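Structure ticket #2291
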Amino acid sequence: MSKIKVMDENLANKIAAGEVVEKCASIVKELVENSVDAHATEVNIFLREGGIKEISVIDNGLGMDEEDALMAFQRHATSKLYKDDDLFFIDTLGFRGEALPSIASVSLVTLKTSFHECGTYLEIEGGVLRKKENADARQGTIITIQNLFYNTPARLKYLKSEQSELQNCVSFVEKFALAHPEVSFTLQNDDRILVKTSGSGSLHKVIHEIYGLQVSSKMLEIKNSNDDFDLFGYVCKPEILKSNRNHMTVIVNGRVIRNQEINRAINEAYYTYKPDIKYPIVVLRIDTDPTLIDVNIHPTKQDIKITKMDILYDLLLQTIKDVLYQNLLIPDAVLRMPTFNPIKNEVLDSVIAESNDEILPSFQSTFDFQDNSNEKEEETTVVINPEMKKLMLYPVGLAHGTYIIAENEEGVYLIDQHAAQERINYEKNMNALRNKNITTTTLLLPITIELSQSEFLKVQAKEEHLKELGFGLEEFGINTFVFKSHPTWLSEGYEEESIRRILDLIIGGLDNFDPVKFNEKIAITLACKMSIKANMHISHEAQEELLNELCVCDNPYNCPHGRPTIIKFSIYDLERMFKRAMN
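Resolution: structure written out below.
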């Protein structure tokens, strides 16, 4: 007797549900994607207990007739693919025909839908049709999911807490609203509205509706294209950073996706504008020919493969670097939240308490909550980077031997003298390392450095690169190098320490040696050692010279580790803090 049999369709759907339905947010994702594919302009999501008890999605899309409504719950039934070639031209969010039957197999589903004519009402329990009848002719679809995983208790126990499931749902809807600014979204949990967007079609307005004025006013527009890709979106100024990548939203052909290479390009563009452990807020739309991407590699359709990734990587990197370079990035010392948003302020305390998120600089005592419901969103004034030189900063003092106090007609500025000189020295070092005409100096007393066998072999492998940088070194005895000359840009009096630090970088480096990255690490490491330290009092003349040198840097706003070098207190901010201005 044959042991191999065709699996029961309902059992197959339950197995597929293990991939498609991971959590409540997975169901919200599948249902909302169906609404957008149905050309809905308004989508309302209602949750009970974070979606654990009930998920309901109401849209004003095309709806379905009775035949399509029944067919939609059949496995691999879809209106989006008809032949093999269609896989190469996918322009919809859903196409596999797995989501609805998988969801229905592990829950109670009620569906009310109409396509112009008489509506259809269905009840499906555990994948079995329990009721079918006529309904009203309201165009669109209402679908409700209840008793999730009631018949698969092993999966039910792996649902997280109500708060965790709710957070995942909110995060998805926020990202999806950013992907589709032309659609109005509302997310409500237990009669409390958590997300609401207008569907105006303006991406910047949706950013404002989701993140608030404090973030939206600090976003910089990016726009670029080549023969294969069109880029559009917004990136934040480095003063607003997060502790994880969750706020880096990447949208490819309308689909919110995850891609490590794209995230790497974004982070590299912010190199030296931020600390390595912090991440920017980014909303990036990439439009391309469907034949250049493959979304059919996982049921969730969030992981995709991109052809010509190297071209996209370079386009992204240069576009973001250019917009950061072209803007004045001095953060205001005073944070204000002038627009009272009832949705956002319900969870304001938890936002402020989120210790891992960082908005630089942060002075909570200066928060000023006002009811300016008629206030229009502020326009972001773009000031190109070279205008930093026109600020005409004049030093007037030094606080705690660390912060230079400077002023001009616009306000008062605090400059971290160590961070500022780190930036100056970093750029000097990088310019010297890029210069092919290297000048060297001979050491009066050669520097001998003894290493372990493993360390010696690592340095030996990079000996030629060190010589290209201007270091005159030779093998000297067992596991030992002698340095007889060095490039002139090494800080005088710190030659041996600088050489040892460079060797440490080689010894502790990765197997995939990148000369460019290695040179940057040298520049950063040595810039710190060459710079004025905190609690070191410098003369007024030295303060002036430091400011003059900072103003001509390519990036005068951050030290090479990403910390801010300069912070501004505008005259208006000062007058408000001292109650000279009361509005």
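Closing remark: DSSP finds 19 helices and 25 strands in the chain.
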